[in-house]
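Shipment paperwork, digital attachment
Item: protein structure file
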Amino acid sequence: MQLNLEIGVASKQEWIDAVMADFNSFLQDHADCERKASSMAMSFVAKYPNRTEIIPELIETAVEELEHFQQVYALMEKRGVELPAKMTKDFYVDRLIKQAYSDPERRFMDRLLIASVLETRGAERFKMVADALEDPELKKFYKMLWTSEAKHGHIFVKMAMNYFNRKDVYDRLHWWIDREAEVIDSLEIRAALH
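Attachment content:
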């Protein structure tokens, strides 16, 4: 069973060039993204406590994302890079969430599928970072993240299929992949994950 799909449009070479040109800024943004990903998984637990079938996986995902934050922070410490004074607004996520259904049931499915496309994009970009890096330790770290994010993309689709029929999930997932491609192409290129 296919649990997620490929991204709709590949990231541009200009994006990885910007990341490599200012890797410290990328690390700061990456740390923020890991904190937000952990919070997102726990927000599902808080908002949908009756969805007991998925709570254990959500907690596991939240802990894993928090561990990633810890690992990114350790890299930052080694490089003398501080956390940003405040977390910046993520226009990428914001633009996706604004397109979600407003009624509670369909919004629940949309939030799960948005999480899937976020993780799938993260996997693609972490692979690009791993491929571009020369430092063996950093290369190994980003390769590990790439495989982890790909797994998370699968998890959120599987969660959706606990509550919605397969056709509805995949029809909406295709729609989200198209929307995500539009959003990612519209963003300013900078040394950030999105």
